[in-house]
Design a protein that fits this description.
Radius of gyration: 26 Å
Oligomer: single chain
Structural class: mainly alpha
Membrane topology: Multi-pass membrane protein
GO cellular component, one term: membrane
Low-confidence stretches: 27-32
Number of helices: 18
Subcellular location: Membrane
Family: Belongs to the inorganic phosphate transporter (PiT) (TC 2.A.20) family.
Distance between the termini: 87 Å
GO molecular function, one term: phosphate transmembrane transporter activity
């Protein structure tokens, strides 16, 4: 009997020990899971440095470029984690794409946009903000670009961690300005270029919001408020998809084919017009088949906007890759050229390996850290359905395309979030308008003003939070960059 009791106690002790080991394993798994993303990111940053070393070989400035490549890779990861949420958030928030599908589409089209059409804006970032004669020595210029890269990456990393969709363009431009002022004073900055960039920051969210509201008004007036919604959708959905396809074709011809053949603006417009008409004709039978058997109600329209929304999200990712890759590789390309030739006053030639670091870094950052902000942008500012999300994506894409075509480093964050606000505020205005019309009917009960205020469709807290983040980003990045530049100078024994 005593032996049985002893064995029983032994088994209970063994069970407790095994339970502890099991709990320890589960805890270790739980703790290590959050470290997987940073671990993969760290490996990518190291690989970026190795690629830079292999590309340059043994030169006197190899170490400098390797360090700059790691900073550029770090910045690219943060762009993917923060900015790409603005592209895929609407599609995910409208349930037109799963998170996994959004990440795959964004990774492909972000990389394509960066590699095919990203060079123009890179030149603006790398040489347009600091005046050609603002900094006399190439070493000082290199340290300034280093400080700009690191400070902007750190700031975006912090913003992503706290869940704020800040502008990576603001961050890197602020970083370049801060380092330039610390290096050579206020006269080193091309304030004319800064004025144009700052104006584009104000204009771009307004354009994004107005165009998104305009598209939503068009869809409501021509489709949703029509007696036969399905028949109206069969007519107008192919037209909207044709507009999107034509804009994409014209942009790709101007940006992506110029290295192969000389494409004039007129030729690009004709190409876009032709492909837009072709897409419109192709989509007519597609939409007709999709609409067969659908009930005449708003919910049925979501099916017809699913494909256009996915395509517009892909288009926006392409445009974002073309525009925002500059934030990661613009300063890096300038450092490479200045370290190899000593020339930092002329156009920057961009090595392929530099563009690859930017393209793949954005994709890795999206995959590893993007879902958090995708959910915030897609569902927490205002409620989106496929029609509203299509308006957001299409208007944001068109605005980014025009900006990138002009070579202006506008903020895709401002454009996309501005489009979301535009859709939300238009819905509020439209709901208020329809409510006033209904109040004219004496038989309908009147809604108190307090209840009408509670029916706001845009979360005001997000408006203030995002606006504050936008205002703070430029000075914060500039101050951090200036401090990093001064620290680098002290460490290297500079003046």
């Amino acid at each position: 009997m005593a032996q049985n009791d002893h064995e029983s106690r032994h088994l209970e002790t063994l069970d407790r020990d095994l339970g502890r080991f099991s709990n320890l394993e589960m805890a270790a798994s739980y703790v290590s899971r959050p470290l997987v993303g940073p671990g993969i990111a760290f490996v990518f940053i190291i690989l970026a440095g190795l690629v830079a070393a292999l590309s340059l070989g043994q030169t006197s400035n190899t170490l400098i470029v390797v360090i700059a490549a790691t900073f550029g890779a770090y910045m690219a990861l943060n762009i993917g984690a923060n900015d790409v949420a603005n592209n895929m958030g609407p599609a995910v928030g409208a349930n037109a794409l799963t998170m996994g599908g959004a990440i795959v589409i964004a990774a492909i089209f972000e990389s394509a946009g960066a590699l095919i059409a990203g060079s123009d804006v890179v030149s603006t970032i790398s040489k347009g903000i600091i005046t050609p004669g603002g900094i006399a020595e190439s070493d000082v210029f290199i340290w300034a670009m280093m400080a700009a890269l690191l400070s902007s990456a750190l700031w975006v990393n912090l913003a992503t961690w706290i869940g704020a969709p800040v502008s990576t363009t603001h961050s890197v431009v602020g970083g370049v300005v801060g380092a330039g002022i610390a290096a050579a004073g206020f006269g080193a900055i091309n304030w004319g270029m800064m004025g144009a960039i700052a104006a584009s920051w104000v204009i771009s969210p307004v354009l994004g919001g107005v165009s998104a509201a305009g598209f939503l008004w068009f869809i409501k007036a021509r489709i949703i408020y029509q007696p036969d919604k399905i028949a109206a959708a069969r007519k107008w959905v192919p037209v909207l998809v044709g507009i999107m396809s034509g804009a994409f074709a014209a942009y790709l011809a101007l940006k992506g084919l110029k290295n192969l053949i000389d494409v004039s603006l007129g030729m690009a417009v004709l190409l876009g017009l032709g492909l837009g008409i072709a897409t419109w004709l192709v989509m007519i039978p597609v939409v007709r088949r999709q609409s067969e058997g659908l009930e005449n109600r708003n919910k049925s329209l979501k099916v017809l906007f699913a494909i256009p929304l996915v395509v517009s999200a892909a288009l926006l990712s392409f445009a974002h890759g073309a525009n925002d890759v500059a934030n990661a590789v613009g300063p890096l390309a300038a450092i490479v050229q200045a370290s190899q030739t000593g020339d930092f006053t002329h156009d920057v030639s961009i090595p392929v390996w530099v563009m690859l670091i930017g393209a793949f870094g954005i994709s890795f950052g999206l995959f590893l850290f993007g879902p958090k902000l995708i959910r915030m942008v897609g569902s927490q500012i205002t409620k989106l359905n496929p029609m509203r999300a299509f308006c957001v994506a299409l208007s944001a894409a068109l605005t980014v395309i025009v900006a990138s075509w002009l070579g202006l480093p506008v903020s895709s964050t401002h454009i996309a979030v501005g489009a979301i606000f535009g859709v939300g505020f238009f819905r509020e205005w439209d709901a208020e308008r329809r409510l006033r019309l209904s109040q004219d009917d004496e038989d309908r009960p009147r809604i108190p003003p307090e209840e009408r205020r509670r029916r706001k469709l845009v979360r005001r807290s997000h408006v203030m939070t995002i606006a504050t983040a936008w205002v703070v980003t430029v000075p914060a990045a500039a101050i951090l960059s200036a401090l990093i530049f001064l620290a680098i100078q002290m460490a290297t024994g500079g003046a």
